[in-house]
Amino acid sequence: MTCPRGHESGTDDFCDVCGARMGATIAMLPPQAHEPAAPPCPHCGTPPIGPGRFCENCGYDSNTGRVPVLSAPVHAPAGEWTATITADKEWFEANAVEGIVFPASVATVDVPLTPPQVRIGRKSSSKGTDPELDLTDDPGVSHSHALLTQNLDGVWLVADMGSTNGTYVNDDPEPLEAGRSRPLADGDRVHIGAWTLITLHAPG
Prior knowledge:
By secondary structure, this protein is mainly beta. It contains 1 helix and 10 strands, in the order βαβββββββββ.
């Protein structure tokens, strides 16, 4: 299938290249700059999907020239961080997107955050994305949406990976700048996609 911007998509709801809603008209979509094709990731060879700092597949950081792999935290508190994943109806209604319907049933799950990093996105065999936190049920989530990374002090950081719809922390009305990390604390809330809310919980 071909999306309104001309990309070949393996999904029929939203384009798995640019995130455009299938069946929309070009006039409804924000213009995209036509830039020369960026080279593939030097670490895994995956073609880039957007202008983000991190590779959508392996997390390669173009600023540092390496894949973020950290040794075990040396100052982290005992125990592991967890995240609660749920659907936030208030967020959905405030940012309603035409053609997307809030799920009839909402499941709330708690997942462990395993260092050194947790990729957030939607699994796609055609794009080669297999995030540790797969949010396939939310069509507003990009295939490689955001990255959680734990630093050597045990602090978890969140960075947007050039997603289509942005990554928002707590009540900040502006999304994170792509590629720029922000530290998170116990109880911090991260909104992504059409309705997904991720709440972080410190050990203990």
